Structure formats: structure tokens, C-alpha cells
Amino acid sequence: MTIGAGLVALAAGLAVAIAAVGSATAQGKTAVAALDAIWRQPDAAGDVRGAMMLALAFQEALTIFVMLVALMLALKVTA
Amino acid sequence: MRGDAAWWLAEAEQESAAAAAHGDILFHIGPLPVTSAITTAWAIIALLALLSYLATRRLEKVPATRLQNALEAVVEYLEGHFGSILGKERAWQYLPFLSTFFLFIIISNYSGILPGAGHLKGFAAPTSHLGYNAGMALVVFFSYHYFGVRARGMAYFKHLADPPYMLPLNLVDELVRPLSLSLRLFGNIYGGEAVLAVMLTVLPYFLPTFMMGLELIFGYIQALIFTTLAAIYIAGATEHHELVAEDEHRRHRGPGPRAQGKEVLP
């Protein structure tokens, strides 16, 4: 494996790791806010849960996009 | 060495690279290649059609068969879910469209967890292939524009340039919707399968079981997210009686705990 291929592999791994930090932070904040809301008003638990799922999906999507880029990079190295 | 973890990993990578390169084409219909994902999708469509036919063959007001009872529960759940976004009246109007997507996506996601998925010829989860998700996202994209024009006429396109300077941003937003819709579903399902494959090579006996349990939850959530977003797009496109519907929804929910005199913690 050349140094260039190694750098590409490193980039693929780091990309997902760095993106996951951002998504995890945001998802943690979302979950805390939603749990707080459910604790304050258990009647609205269903509504809050639905909105939370949606917000989580949007945050998750960013890491997923990066993962696709990383997979493309990884396939480039193995091919 | 043949049989150890590194060998399996290399095999799996080669296999996926080969599948990505020319696909696992089973046969051709005219110029169109038919892959395992497509035959699985046909099987899912046939299964859904058969279930619906069997359940609605002898409809009764008080369900006589267990199947009718079970499917009524599904329809009621979906109606309640979409009703909270679209309002009751519009939820019924668009329920066939949305719940078809939901049922197809959830069964397709779960089909990827069955043994042999992706390895047997003619059996692969359709939603772990980008092409299938892109097709569904495009159907959603064109449908909600059509619904919008049907509900509001040509005035529908005015919302794109509501403050005129927002036009470019709104156009980008519209075009990104099908892209993110399809990539989110594909990434989650394909990513889940890839993680499962890696776990199988690392610790083949117990670890994957937990991941499969998680996959059941993810498959359900992703089906729900796809259809919820479709419902939100439709709600935005057919907006003009949305405010009325929302008011109705608020009124029927009744007063919160504070208004009922219950003690509410700060």
C-alpha cells in the first residue's frame, strides 16, 4: 500500500469520526431537551417523541452522508 | 489465511465491490437488467397485495377474522400518526399513498435481516440499494408538487418566491429534498448491514444478535421518518386549510394539566 492510499484510508476513517462527534453532540442535546419536556408534561409525550425522532433523523443524516463519502473513498483504496 | 477474520473481510469486500461494479444481474427484460433487489421488491409487493386481498375479502363491521383485526390496527395507527401532521380529513385523503410507502419500506428493511439476504440469488433488501430509494424519493417529489397544484392551482408555485429574494434558496431546498430522502434511507439500511457484516467477522456468535435487535428498531424508525417527511412535504404543499386543521387538532386535545388544576412541577 502506497502512502497516498494510506492517506485516503485515514481520511475515510477520520471523516466519519469527526462527523460523528458533531451528530452525537447535537443528538444528545435533542434527547435531553425532549426528555426534559416529557418529564415536565407527560401528557404530551407522544407529540414530543414524534418531533424528537424527526430532529434526530435530520442530525443523523449528516453523518450518514459523510459515511457514504467515506465508503466511496474506502472502495477506491481496496480496488 | 483461508477462514480467518482478515480473509472473510477481504472476501466480503471483494464481493461488495463486484456487486457494486456490475450488479447481480439475474436476467434482462428488454434493455432493463433485473437484479436481486428488484425480484425481492416484486415478492414484497405480491405479499402486501395478497395480505390485503385476504384481509378485505369478507369485510365485516365487527372484524370476524384475525387478519382483518390486525390490519385494522395497522391502518388505525397510521391514520393517527399522519392525522397529527395533516389533520384528520387530509390524512384520509393521502393515507393510501403514505401507508403504501410505509408498509413497503418497513417490510423491505426487515427482509434485509432474514438469513440469506444479500447472499442468495434473487434475495436482497431493496432499501439497501440506492437506486430503489432514489426511485421512491422521486415519486414523493413529483407527487407532492402534483398534490399542491391540485389543491391550490397555479398559486401553488407562488410560495417558492414569497419574499422574492428567497427564490434561489427555496429552489435548492426543493431539489435537495429527494436527495436527502433517498440517501438517508439508503445510508441507514446499507450502513446497518455493513456494520452487521463486520460484527459477524469479529465475533460471530453473540454480538450480532444485539445489532439485529437494534436493526429492527432502525428499520421501523427509518420507514416512519421517510413517510413522516413525505407527509410534511404534502402538508406544506396543500397548505391553505392547514391552519384550520391545526386549530381543530388543538381544540380536540383538551386542556393541559395546568388548566385542569393539577400541580405541574416547574
Characterise the protein shown here.
The complex is a heterodimer of chains A (79) and B (266). Chain A is mostly helical and 79 residues long. In chain A, 91% of the residues lie in helices and 0% in strands. The termini of chain A are close together. In chain A, 10% of the residues are buried. Chain B has one domain (24-253). Chain B has 8 helices and 2 strands, in the order H-E-E-H-H-H-H-H-H-H. Chain B has a two-stranded antiparallel ribbon with strand order 1-2. The termini of chain B are far apart. The chains are: A mainly alpha (79), B mainly alpha (266). The interface between A and B is medium-sized, with 19 and 23 residues.
Break the fold down into its secondary structure elements and pairings:
The complex is a heterodimer of chains A (79) and B (266).
Chain A: H1 3-40, H2 45-78
Chain B: H1 5-22, E1 25-29, E2 32-35, H2 36-56, H3 66-86, H4 88-111, H5 130-152, H6 167-202, H7 207-237, H8 242-253
Antiparallel strand pairs in B: 1-2
Helix pairs in contact in B: 1-6, 2-4, 3-4, 3-7, 4-7, 5-6, 5-7, 6-7
In short:
The complex is a heterodimer of chains A (79) and B (266). Chain A has helices spanning 3-40, 45-78.
Largest interface: A-B, 19 and 23 residues
Q: What is the number of E strands of chain B?
A: 2
Q: Which percent range describes the beta-strand content of chain B?
A: under 5%
Estimated radius of gyration of chain A: 18 Å
Radius of gyration of chain B: 22 Å
Beta-strand content of chain A: under 5%
What is the helical fraction of chain B, as a range of percent? 55-70%
Tally of individual helices of chain B: 8
- Helix and strand string of chain B, N-terminal first? HEEHHHHHHH
